[in-house]
Amino acid sequence: MGLPRRFLGEHEHVVFHMRTHWKRIFGHVLIGIVLLAAGIAGTIFMPAAAQPIGSYIVWGVVVIAFIPATLSPVLKWLSSTFTITDRRIITRTGILNKRGHDIPLSRIANVSYEHSFIDRIFRCGTLILQTSAEEPLRLDDIPRVEQVHVRMTEMLFSIHQQAGSQPGDRA
């Protein structure tokens, strides 16, 4: 599912729509599986004298631990997106309270990426966007970061060429 059309300007086109790489929630999902397995094992091996109250307590603890350890991070991951259009970069995040940030491509002076050994295995990385702000914007765990970097560089070159300036030039 892409960004809804109502959030795009006239004649604006989506180039990439993505969320962070699934490796970001892998540990949380693993914890959830372990919690569910512990709940099942606790129910199966519970003495008959402790039934059914013991099972209620076990599953109550599992649910209370599952919500912050697994459910909340997965919902946050599902609700956080990065969209790159032919005009801007759009970030949206939040489950109940939404936050958004838009950066016009014309404000970006430089785009680079970095990825660690683990990132290279998972084919993701950090996209670094240098704007006029002091600190660059870092978008972590972007899938296919090299492909996104190449496309962003092409778009920036095209935008700066149309404006008659070089990336990084200041008037």
Main traits of this protein?
single chain, 3-stranded antiparallel beta sheet, elongated, 171 residues, 4-stranded antiparallel beta sheet
Can you give a write-up of this model?
The protein is of the alpha+beta class and 171 residues long. Helix content is 43%, strand content 24%. It is built from 4 helices and 7 strands; from the N terminus they run E-H-H-E-E-E-E-H-E-E-H. The chain has helices at 23-44, 53-79, 117-122, 145-163; strands spanning 14-18, 81-85, 88-93, 99-104, 110-114, 124-130, 137-143. Strand 2 and strand 3 form a beta hairpin. Helix 1 (23-44) runs antiparallel to helix 2.
In short:
This protein is of the alpha+beta class and 171 residues long. It has helices at residues 23-44, 53-79, 117-122, 145-163, and strands at 14-18, 81-85, 88-93, 99-104, 110-114, 124-130, 137-143.
What would the principal axes of the Cα set say about the shape?
Answer: elongated
Mean pLDDT: 88
- Largest sheet features: 4 strands, antiparallel
Q: Record the strand order, biggest sheet.
A: 1-2-3-4
Strand content: 15-25%
Secondary-structure element order, N to C: EHHEEEEHEEH
Oligomeric composition of the shown chains: single chain
Class by helix and strand content?
Answer: alpha+beta
Helical fraction equals 40-55%
Number of strands: 7
Radius of gyration computed on alpha carbons: 22 Å
Q: What is the overall number of helices?
A: 4
Determine the N-to-C terminus distance: 39 Å
Low-confidence stretches: none
